[in-house]
Amino acid sequence: MTRPAVLAQLSVRRGREAVEFYKAALGAVEVYRVGGDEHNPSVVSQLTVGDASFWVADESPEHGNFSPETVGGGTVRLLLVVDDPDAAVRRAVEAGATEMYPVGEEHGWRMGRIADPFGHHWEVGRPLGAWPPPGGGPGGHP
After folding, report:
1. Distance CA 96, CA 79 (A)
2. How many other β-carbons are positioned within 10 Å of the β-carbon of residue 41?
3. Tens-digit pLDDT profile for residues 42-98
4. Residue 125 burial (CB < 10 Å; 0-12/13-18/19+)?
5. From the CB of residue 43, how many other CB atoms can be counted at a distance below 10 Å?
6. DSSP string, 98-110
7. pLDDT tens by residue, 100-138
């Protein structure tokens, strides 16, 4: 039986370059690829970071898949949970990401925010205690 899961698929321009960026910036490992060669330059790639997985694909406007660069922004912000957010943000910036918010402590997390060179925004952090908090947070709803 397949376990339910939600995996992001990021539409980008320059897909092959994006795959290499995520490897360098996030330590991602490519586990699957279609295309991305001289015969078929468009790429669809599955990457993993720890136990998490996401997909990267060249945008295909004919199928309604647009990169943030094409539409002038994104509608999804990704959250990467890591043990050392400070080091992870530094690594991403060194690989070409832009720091949007420095790493700090807020709302029970140590977290910073970056924008990757392909227009996607990532919050990078870790909870400072048990998560979700007992009682589900300030509103009391889990």
Report:
1. 18
2. 12
3. 999 999 999 999 999 999 999 999 999 999 999 899 999 999 999 999 999 999 999
4. buried
5. 21
6. EEEEEEEEETTEE
7. 999 999 999 999 999 999 999 999 999 999 888 887 766
Of 111, 110, 112, the residue nearest 93 (C-alpha): 112
Q: Which tokens is 8 given?
A: 């992001």
Q: Report the predicted TM-score, pTM, of the whole model to 2 decimal places.
A: 0.90
Task: Please state whether the peptide bond connecting residue 132 to the residue before it is cis, i.e. omega within 30 degrees of 0.
Answer: yes
The whole-angstrom separation of Cα 121 and Cα 69 is: 12
Tokens found for residue 136: 């589900």
Q: Catalogue the E-assigned strands of 59-141.
A: 77-81, 98-106, 109-115, 121-127
Q: How many Å apart are CA 59 and CA 33, to the nearest integer?
A: 15
- CA-CA distance, 90 to 74, in Å (whole number)? 23
The C-alpha atoms of residue 74 and residue 82 are separated, in whole angstroms, by: 23
